Amino acid sequence: MTPQSPHKSLSKPKLGQNFLVDDSARHAIVDALGDISQRTVLEIGPGHGAITDILAGRAKRLIAFELDRALAAELTFRFRDQPHVQIVEIDFLKADLNVWIPAEETADVIGNLPYYITSDILLKLFASGAEGRIARAVLMMQREVAERVSASPGVRDYGLLSATAQMNAQVANLFTLPPTAFSPPPEVYSTVLRLEFVPRFAELDVDPAGFEAFLRQCFSQKRKTLRNNLRSAGHSPEALAGTWPPCIPEQARAESLDLAALAEFYRALRTWQAEA
Description:
By secondary structure, the chain is an alpha/beta fold. The protein folds into 2 domains: 19-197, Rossmann fold (3-Layer(aba) Sandwich); 208-275, Helicase, Ruva Protein, domain 3. The protein has helices at residues 23-31, 52-56, 69-78, 97-100, 118-130, 143-150, 160-168, 208-218, 226-232, 237-243, 259-275; strands at 19-20, 40-44, 61-66, 85-89, 107-112, 134-142, 169-177, 182-183, 190-197. The strands form 2 sheets. It has a 7-stranded mixed β-sheet with strand order 4-3-2-5-6-9-7, sandwiched between helices.
């Protein structure tokens, strides 16, 4: 696992790689996946294999996606005698996960999310989770990003990323690692999250594409009220007045509201639009 900070490192200037060297941390990360003896595990960014070594001894099947050609070659050679381990030299964002997950099965995911593409990778995982292909993920990311992913409504860090993540998964903040857990030490702390993919779209009676678009409208300007954001998105004053839920204060901001309240508003607006 190779956590990557937004700052360039001396090890890999282009990729900003910082390699996990804390032995207890690498075991704790794998332990967080639970029993994987009958599971296919997808690893993002194995690096020198600190996590891969442990996974190879526990997983039924391990697919590790490594963008760095030299590292991919190193790992391919190391695990050459373990047919259940496959190293794939590819950008994880470009990988078709359905190719690597056995039909009629789900997979687990583990790895680091580089700072600059954290949201893109999360969205890819959410989509696979919604399709029923991924069951659980244990992910390391920059602490500040992890705090946004796991934030609750009403706190400063709660926003679109929080709402989207929690619409798609149950999020648990597990532990944080200091820079000294890596070599070379990054300039940031890294936090490990566990996501259990349990999408709530059916529970809240909303369609995924429409509700996700609505969430983007609600959170478009953090300092604006929900009403002003929705008006800026094209919802008329009449539509807002006619559908405003009693559970939402008039001057509320989206970050103060839970998903159930926002889903109620979305359903009311959809009914209004259908009848208009």
